[in-house]
Amino acid sequence: MTNNATYHREHFFVQEELDLIKKSVLENIESSQSKNMIELKNIDPIYEKLQLFFKEELGKEVEFLNSFIFFASSTTMDSRMKSSNMGWHTDGTCSLVDGDCYNVWIPIYNDSESTGLEIVSEGKNPELYTQFGDPTEIPVIYSRENSKEIYHFFGNSIPEDTDLIIVKVASGLVLPLAKKNLSIDKYENPTPGDIVIFKQSELHRGFHDGGIRIQLSLKFRLKNAEINQKSTNQFYKLFETVTFGEKSFNDYQRFLEFIHPKEKLSKHGSLENEAITSLLSMNM
Description:
Order of helices and strands: EHHEHEEEHEHEEEEEEEHHH
Mean pLDDT: 89
Strand order of the largest sheet: 1-10-4-12-2
Distance between the termini: 32 Å
Oligomer: single chain
Helix content: 25-40%
Low-confidence stretches: none
């Protein structure tokens, strides 16, 4: 794997390691009060195996940031497919870090025959990412299918074959994209224990139809990476104003949690967590 490529390995985690992950989810999911976020405890061997991979395959030393859990069903994915971006996004965590940060995508349950992940990798689309600009600035994305008013607004200023419009407000970037010109990596119907690793700043989306996929996303950053102090990081200036002394990354994360609380669990989110618990319990 090069520094700018996605990495995919089937059965990266053996059954014993997968059971350890599931056990941690079952023990900790009830304590999660924020949508999708989960604090996984007692899985140090999992983090160590991934950190060793980063060191041996990428030549990078990384530190764990946080973890998220997702319950993919026809119902939960339908709203994403009908959103303005059709699910295409980059991960918000990369806006906090001045340096590369990575997403480790791990399915831990799957009974669907049509589910997976699509990634527009930097390695296969170098010209796109040259135009893409600052990776820490989170883009707004509009799809032709679901954002007809936006496309009408831009009119003849964008090519007729534009499928996605990338907008970065702070840098004034408007980037129209045609999917036919992109190389998109597609990982279909994963087996629990498979992994896909990619940069959080790379465009990606999940897809799903029928059945259930339960998936973890573990976030890592380069070891000793600095806090993003660019003008696109709107909260850093406030953090700098109200804190004194050494400003560590952990302090900055706690500050963000205080001023920008995560979305609380709704009734629907609680039902998703109950379904995760039931399915993983039966699958242990």
